[in-house]
Each structure stands twice: as structure tokens, then as C-alpha cells.
């Protein structure tokens, strides 16, 4: 058993003001840019201040004898989480999804710095509650949420909390063969395939499902099941439009075999952190063995 004190890893992403200053250099230039688009710098600055205040409160909540770290979302793929880490995501619900794919059982506490803007599905706690949450952490209920796995035939694997996307890197037409666990098989030309979890059922998959009269019923967030959708399948003499949606329950999988170059797999909107397929490579998509452990 490790004798190390727990380490709290605060995870955040750059605010809109941070992005504006990185692009335009000064507050005056950022204000001018926003005015040209009918927006006000004060509103952007207020959101930035709320996020900074939440991060300050979260940092002060860490017990003095615990270790701590602060990580930007852009650096997640280069950071090594330790088994004793406690992850505190300060930001939007999507930030929890972004960090989940890099974890292996570490508890996650979602802190909502802007409840007037963020629904709080995954970032459930106000900043001033964090001190008590960390103190009582061993006895708090943890909700396990299903994740989706995409495994290439060369051993590479990618996880997602909301969904994974398979398709062309530019989102143009991709050619591939889709195979299901029951032996069904069809060649496709489409703008990609989205496979989502119960957590992701309110996001991208929901947008697609609303356009389908025969959309499969979405799973619950903790249910070991996924739904999948083919986007804009194109009928031709060589490609079909019959296998365009379905559910994967338990150990069922979906296999996608590339029939071209430039095909990729990424999860939860993080396109730079992706798997790349060459012609003939296969990716198998199914319920992941890992789960997100979300502190309630």
C-alpha cells in the first residue's frame, strides 16, 4: 500500500479571455475585437474572474499535508496520473469527459464555477463545497459511469466518456466496412460513425437521434451499453444505407475496417489526441473495461 499523501490535481482549461489575449495581445485589442462582433469585454472578463475565483477557492480547500498540482486541459495527454490522485475538474461538464479517458479508477470531483451557464451534469459541486468533499472523500458515494473503447488491430486503444468518432480527419466522406456482432456487414461511404455512452446520450448522439425516427433507445449513464450512428450514409452500387444505427449491449462490439487513407478515431471532441488508421486497418468499438468514478 502506498504511504504517499493523496495528490489533488486541479484540471481547468483556458478561459475565453485567456484565448483572446493569446490571440490579440492586449485587453484593448481584445475589447475592440469583441465590439466588432456586438459583444462586451466586461461579460468575458466577469466569466474569467469567476473561474479564477473558483480555482483559488479549490486550491485553498486542499489539506495542508496533501500534495497538489494544476493541469491545463491542453496538457492532459502528456500528464501521468498516479493511483493516489484525486482529480478536481473546475469548469464545464465537458472538462470531466476530457479528463476521464486518461484515468484508471481515480475519483473525480466536478466543480462548477458558473452555474448560470453550465448545466452541472458532471460538475455538480460549488467551489466552496470542495473542502468538505475532500475531508469526507473515503465515505462519499461514487457513481460509476460507462465509457466507450476504440481498439485498433495494432494494440492502440482510445477511451471516451461521451462518445468516439470514427471517420475522415476532415469530416469528408470516409469509406469503410462496418460489421456487427451478429454477423451483419455493410460497406459505407459516410461522414463518419459516432458511438456514444449513456453520459453522451444528451450530447452529440442526442443531436443525431433527434433526426432519426428509428433511433435506438439511449442507455443509462451507468448501463453497460452504447448506441451508434452512421452519419449521412451515401447509397451507391458499392455502398449501402441499411446498417446506420443500433445498440451495443454488454460484450457486443462494432468493427470498422478502413478502406482509405486519412481515417481517424478521437474521443469527446479532443481531435488532436487521436488514433490514425491506414488502409485495411480495423478498429473495434465496445464498452470499455474502465469506468469514470464520479464523486457525488
From TrEMBL:
InterPro entries: NAD/diacylglycerol_kinase_sf
SUPFAM superfamilies per the UniProt record, alphabetical: NAD kinase/diacylglycerol kinase-like
Molecular functions per Gene Ontology: NAD+ kinase activity
GO biological process, one term: NAD+ metabolic process
PANTHER family according to UniProt: NAD KINASE 2, MITOCHONDRIAL, PTHR13158
Stated name of the protein: Inorganic polyphosphate/ATP-NAD kinase
Organism phylogeny: Bacteria, Bacillati, Actinomycetota, Actinomycetes, Micromonosporales
Amino acid at each position: 500500500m502506498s504511504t504517499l499523501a493523496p495528490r489533488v490535481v486541479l484540471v481547468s482549461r483556458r478561459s475565453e479571455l485567456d484565448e483572446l489575449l493569446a490571440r490579440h495581445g492586449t485587453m484593448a485589442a481584445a475589447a475592440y475585437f469583441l465590439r466588432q462582433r456586438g459583444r462586451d469585454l466586461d461579460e468575458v472578463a466577469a466569466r474569467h474572474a469567476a473561474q479564477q475565483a473558483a480555482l483559488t477557492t479549490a486550491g485553498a480547500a486542499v489539506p495542508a499535508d496533501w500534495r497538489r498540482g494544476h493541469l491545463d486541459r491542453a496538457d492532459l495527454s502528456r500528464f501521468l496520473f498516479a493511483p493516489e490522485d484525486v482529480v478536481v475538474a473546475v469548469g464545464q461538464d465537458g472538462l470531466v469527459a476530457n479528463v476521464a479517458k486518461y484515468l484508471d479508477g481515480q475519483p473525480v470531483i466536478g466543480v462548477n464555477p458558473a452555474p448560470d451557464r453550465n448545466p452541472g451534469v458532471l460538475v455538480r459541486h460549488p467551489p466552496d463545497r470542495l473542502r468538505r468533499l475532500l475531508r469526507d472523500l473515503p465515505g462519499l458515494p461514487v457513481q460509476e459511469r460507462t465509457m466507450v473503447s476504440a481498439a485498433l488491430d495494432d494494440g492502440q486503444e482510445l477511451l471516451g466518456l461521451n462518445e468516439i468518432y470514427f471517420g475522415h480527419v476532415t469530416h469528408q466522406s470516409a469509406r469503410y466496412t462496418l460489421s456487427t456482432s451478429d454477423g451483419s456487414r455493410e460497406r459505407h461511404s459516410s461522414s463518419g460513425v459516432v458511438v456514444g455512452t449513456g453520459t453522451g446520450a444528451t450530447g452529440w448522439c442526442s443531436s443525431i437521434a433527434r433526426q432519426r425516427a428509428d433511433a435506438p433507445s439511449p442507455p443509462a449513464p451507468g448501463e453497460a451499453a452504447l448506441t451508434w450512428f452512421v452519419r449521412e450514409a451515401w447509397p451507391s452500387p458499392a455502398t449501402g444505407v441499411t446498417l446506420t444505427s443500433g445498440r451495443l449491449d454488454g460484450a457486443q462490439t462494432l468493427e470498422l475496417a478502413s478502406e482509405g487513407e486519412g481515417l481517424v478515431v478521437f474521443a469527446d471532441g479532443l481531435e488532436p489526441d487521436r488514433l490514425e488508421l491506414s488502409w485495411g486497418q480495423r478498429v473495434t468499438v465496445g464498452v470499455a473495461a474502465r469506468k469514470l468514478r464520479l464523486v457525488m
